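User: Can you predict the 3D structure for this chain?
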Amino acid sequence: MYKKIHIPKRTFTVIEELAERRLDYVLSFFTDLSRKEAKKIVEKGLVLVNNKLITFPSKKIKKGDKIIILEAEDVSVPEPEIIYEDEHIVVVNKPSGLLTEKIGSEKGTALSEILKKREKIVYPVHRLDCETSGVIIFAKTDSTKEFLIEEFKNRRVNKTYIGVVEGIMHPKKGVLKGELRKTKEYAETNYEVMQILKSATLLKLMPRTGRTHQLRLQLAQIGHPIIGDKKYYNIKRTKIFFKRQALHAYKINFIHPETKRWVTFSAPIPDDLKRLIEDLRP
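Assistant: Here is the predicted structure, written as structure tokens:
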């Protein structure tokens, strides 16, 4: 499902690391647009390069080029998809770029706000980072919220993520555990190598604890940061670029609060992450 959004006028200058990349790629890197959406706004005549109108997305961009995205109202972006819903829970496939819930001074659109506008009363019981896509669950009653929070606390909720990290991971299966340098909290994650890519690795990640930025911090600490992570990944030292952190919450398995039976829900790998994986295949 898609909705139309307002795109404000934006101006930015191309950095050396993006030189010789396609215009649509550069636009998607600097914005929240997918490559498909970036291609669309170029073809619609909404992009200037060095004050010259460019309408072909494949144009190669040089270091120092000044790019202007003109104001527009008709660029479509994905909306969250409801995977499952009953009287007790809502399971959602969250697109990258949405907050789970606004906390404090956080800016941006929150998934909880979108659901409430659809006349759904929901209570977050866990969070996904804004740039992380994938499956997330909300409670619809106070009792369900309390039950699920307790299940998370007691590590009875099993989550599986798909991520692309810099470098080649060895061994192919293992456990990341120990203190997080930033927070001094203990964290534990099982991982499996799904595929060796060009200067990167496709991983399956199964966190056993639920620390803030756990996967991102653990992988950065061992020298394999998640590609595209603007906080823990240094784009100036790599030739692999991705507009967001290459992390997707693929599957979640938990005890249903009413039936007390185990249930499993999953969200397919999004197109932008699929393209990254395909581009990095040997």
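The first strand starts at residue 2 and ends at 7. The chain has two domains: 2-76, 81-280.
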